[in-house]
Structure formats: structure tokens, C-alpha cells
Fold:
Amino acid sequence: ISFAIQRSEQGIRFSNPLMTSIREFYPEEYHLGMECLATIRQRFHADLSDDEGGFIALHIVNAEYDNSLGITMHVTKALGNMLQILNHWETIEIDHESLYCDELIVHMKFLALSVFSDTHGDKREPAFVNLVRTSYPREFGCASAVADYLEENSGHKVSDEKKAYLAIHLHRVNRME
Structure:
């Protein structure tokens, strides 16, 4: 906060390219960040942009998940890109009004977090993976595309079990069923 105020006094402003993703994927933290920003503006008479509220929200997310700011920023950017993959997948139509959509977003947060943090712990369940792959091939294909994106951008492997769990979440929100 001190550096943000100093930058503002020097006429230096940073834009936050993740504002839309922060607002969408971390609504509570975003709201709290904007409340903090309003208090800072009032208390210190600081001319801070709304982007600073987004940066505050990212710091709150860091504290919640006990991660570095770098990982949080990678995860936030990845979430937006993962959602684009889902929204452009031909055989998946996300029902954003579904009660399961929030669960999908939460699952994607933890998936991206585990991949970028290189957190393992998946129990090998080949029978489960095979069941999901054969029962929901369209969703498993989409989950595999999301996994490919995560692997390419994190440098870490996404297990077949993680793909299967994502496929199940996709099946629950897919309007094309």
C-alpha cells in the first residue's frame, strides 16, 4: 500500500490486466480489495486507480491460499484462459445459471493452483479414469484440452485423475446433454 501511494505521488500508475478475472473468479476478495482501496483513498487522500483494488485482492488471495504472488497471478490468468477453452469447445455449452457452475469454477481454481504449485497427491485410479473417459468422452476431451493448456503454461503434468474429475464437473454444467 505504501509503494502504491508513493507511485501515485510520483505519477506512476500500473494497470492490472487481470481485473476482469479477479472480479469474476474471486468476487469476495475483489469486493474486499475495493473496500480497502476506498478506505486508503479517504484516509491518505491518495489518488489510486481501481486497479490497485485488484492488486489488493490478489494479496488477499495469496494469504488465503498461502502462495506467492507469482503463483496467484499465474492461476488467475490461467482461469480466464481455461474458461475460454471451455466456452469455445464445440461439444460443451456451459450453463452459467446452473448451480454446478460455481462448483466448476472452484474446482478449476484448485486444479490450476495444484498444477502451478506442482502439488501432487493424486491417488492412481485407472478404473475411475477409464469409466469417466468412456462415459463422458466429450467432456473428457475438453478436460484434456484444458490440461494441455495447464501443462504447457506451468511445466507440470496434469494427471488423468485430475482430467477425470474436471470432466465430471463439465458433465454437470453441460447444456448439450
